[in-house]
Amino acid sequence: MFASIVTISLAAILTNNFIFSQFLGICPFLGVSNKMSTATGMSVAVIFVMTMASAICWVINEFLLIPFGVAGFMQTVAYILVIAVLVQFVEMFLKKAIPALYSAMGIFLPLITTNCAVLGVVLLNTQNSYGFLESVIDGFTGGIGFTVAIVLFASVRERLEFADYPKAFEGFAICLVTAALFALAFMGFSGMKIPV
Amino acid sequence: MNAKKQLTEGLITNNPVLVQQIGLCATMAISTSLFNGIGMGLSVLIILTCCNVVISAIRKIIPGQVRLAIFVVVIAGFVTIVDLLLQAFIPALSSALGVFIPLIVVNCIIIGRAEAFSSKEGVFLSFRDGVFQGLGYTCVLVLMCLVRELLGSGTIGGGLLNGASSFITLDGTGAGFRIIPEGFGAGALVLPFGGFLTLGCLMAVMQYALRKSNEKKARKEKEVKE
Amino acid sequence: MKKVIDFVKPAAILLLVAAVVALVLGMVDSVTRDRIAEIAEQTKTNAMQAVLPAASYEQIELGAETPADINEAYAAEGGGWVVQVTETGSQGAVTLMVGVDADLACTGISVTKSSETAGLGAIASQQSDAGEAFRSQFVGQTGTVAVTKDGGIINALTGATITSRAISTGVTSAIALCETLG
């Protein structure tokens, strides 16, 4: 049990990083990584939603979809609805309960619905037939992996502003090239695993 | 709005991937062989067109507050239909694209077009918009695949062309045409690294071309004025 | 009163849309369900035929002390076994079918499910010359199978030692299982 948890965490954060090796969540990754403060705000929101979504979707799949025999065709619809509702709910809750945190990450919350890392992690949990604890761990560490990627990238991107590159590469193009180098670096982690 | 203008917008001036810069995840993840690229492109085209038509048809009764939730449900519905049909009739494609088929639900292109276009315009215009934007997406995917496959694994049309029994195969076993001898390709290009790099360069080329054509247009206008 | 309607109407419409979608999906599913199940069955049989051709296969009940990486085992008609094992590769689980003959030698392998790196580890599951060459190395292997780096004789795929190692481990444990069966 412990071994599988460590393996899942290691994969989600380093070897199988959502952004650099699975290409999930690229849009928000490029969209909000231009400043360190927005990057951390987004990360907190993503970690939270990914963990919650993993837990809730596991419960729904196990106790609603599978018993009624509709798991094959209602999974995607149910999951995305859960995520959309969850995001809405978190937004309302934060607005009332912790206004400071809400104003810090408020604008990123609606964006999370269409973050494919969130739906991706939930679908992959089901595909790998993870149990409840494993799903939650995968969601949480997946969010951490997202954070590692986006925070590292934001710090490089702040320096990109002073770099001298061809004008045609302005905007997302140079970011993608930079991300390519990151992906190359993250490949170094591939195959890392704990001996069992 | 005429068809020609919509077509150029979809393919070039407002291309979903290279200009609007959305829907990047799948573009980079699956563009490793022509089979995947065309399969993914056409799936998105079909889903986008269907969603555009349906959303445009029911746009008058969609309440503003739950707009996004309704879009998402409609999109998820069509995505699941395509997913099931692929699993049943083109299983090779379904297993090659894997989780990226259900992930079309959160592909920003579809929800973006729903929000920006089909929830405001008529059914026919939305239909055309879906087809043209989908074509624009497919073209970029095919381009990415050609570059990455040729330079990375040295073949063209892997999975799709030159199958054992027929020229075009749908079971994913086509060998493709080998241009660069085996072992001489730049293998890194089919890795995640290559996805980022190729898309970055394509975007730069597009920005360069658009800027040049804008400059040319501006110069012409200036000449006309003088 | 107006407030209630404001709240109920959107919810009702959302529910209606969701119900229609569910209905349509149910219909599509009823058409495709059997075919999808059939294809899954077919793929499995094909993989078993590829590693150890036989007229029929009979599933073997596995004991509680069976190693965790063994999923299923089948006795082939006319001797030998086909074992399905799952190992951890570089990007996640690698599932393979291993054919083992009555003399406990591997008769062939087929990778049925993997998410290894495209262009490197993924070659192990591809129908290409390189993939074929890699897989054919396992034919005739007995006892402990290992890649050259670990002192064995299997040439690992370029840049995919971890995938190759995972597959070697899978073959080894399949052979070990058949030893207890035979």
Structure characterization notes:
The complex is a heterotrimer of chains A (196), B (226) and C (182). Chain A has helices spanning 2-15, 26-31, 36-65, 71-97, 99-105, 109-113, 116-127, 132-160, 172-187. Chain A is an all-alpha fold and 196 residues long. Chain A has one domain (2-187). In chain A, helix 7 (116-127) packs antiparallel against helix 8 (132-160). The mean pLDDT of chain A is 85. Chain B has 8 helices and 2 strands. Chain B has helices at 3-13, 24-30, 34-57, 67-89, 91-97, 108-118, 123-153, 192-225, and strands at residues 155-156, 177-178. The termini of chain C are far apart. Chain C has helices at 2-51, 129-136, 161-181; strands spanning 57-59, 70-76, 81-88, 93-100, 106-113. Chain C has 182 residues and is an alpha+beta fold. Chain C contains 3 helices and 5 strands, in the order αβββββαα. The chains are: A mainly alpha (196), B mainly alpha (226), C alpha+beta (182). Chains in contact: A-B, A-C, B-C.
User: In this structure, how is the largest beta sheet of chain B organized?
Assistant: 2 strands, antiparallel
Q: Indicate the overall shape of chain B.
A: globular
Total domains of chain B: 1
Strand fraction of chain C equals 15-25%
- What kind of oligomer do you see? heterotrimer
Order of helices and strands of chain C: HEEEEEHH
Query: How many strand elements of chain B?
Result: 2
Overall outline of chain C:
elongated
Structural class by SSE content of chain B = mainly alpha
What count of helical segments of chain B does DSSP give?
8
**N-to-C order of helices and strands of chain B:** HHHHHHHEEH
Low-confidence stretches of chain B: none
What is the helical fraction of chain B, as a range of percent? 55-70%
Spatial ordering of strands, largest sheet of chain C? 1-2-3-4-5
The number of helices of chain C is: 3
Structural class of chain C: alpha+beta
Backbone CA Rg of chain B? 19 Å
Largest beta-sheet details of chain C:
5 strands, antiparallel
Helix content of chain C: 40-55%
